Amino acid sequence: MFTRRQFLIGAGMVIGTGASGAGLITLKRASLPQLRPPGALPPQEFLAACIRCGQCVEACPYDALHPATLAQGVAVGAPVVAPRESPCKLCQGYDELKCIIACPTPALQPVAEWRDIRMGAAVIHHDTCLAWQGTPCRACWHACPFPNEAIELDERGRAILIAEKCVGCGMCDHACITEPSSITIIPRSV
Q1: d(C-alpha 101, C-alpha 84), whole Å
Q2: Are 14 and 64 contained in the same domain?
Q3: How many whole angstroms separate alpha carbon 190 and alpha carbon 187?
């Protein structure tokens, strides 16, 4: 026997009321796991350790963290980053990562060097990137906190992402001027 919650989550639907009255709204499940804050444990360990207290969300000076909603999956309340809307700015201008300091559990671990953060890695879509289509653009390179390390420019001025140097903050995705973005942040999966 399914509980009501299990049914709604499994069916991917929720009952909603709008201007036109009650109806079924189909929830879109993200094809990628959620992007987590800096220092997050691997996904399953993170979700087990996170108590969904919201202290990291409150501590974020740039409003990059938000509690996950039902539409984002079953980890309701766990902190997520939506880089296209508001990327993690790695607490630029501060001496510490505010979310990690605020976390009362081991869900967010301290990082020795900010370059060691591994929230995920950016991937550039050459088929929609302006520079890869012949139009000069360096928006992602300028936005990157580690230009010439995580994002390099080739001899034609096209961005090349270096996955092993990318921290996954999403600043490049946020800065991309194409719509939809020509950059996707692939969250860390292990």
Answers
A1: 25
A2: no
A3: 9
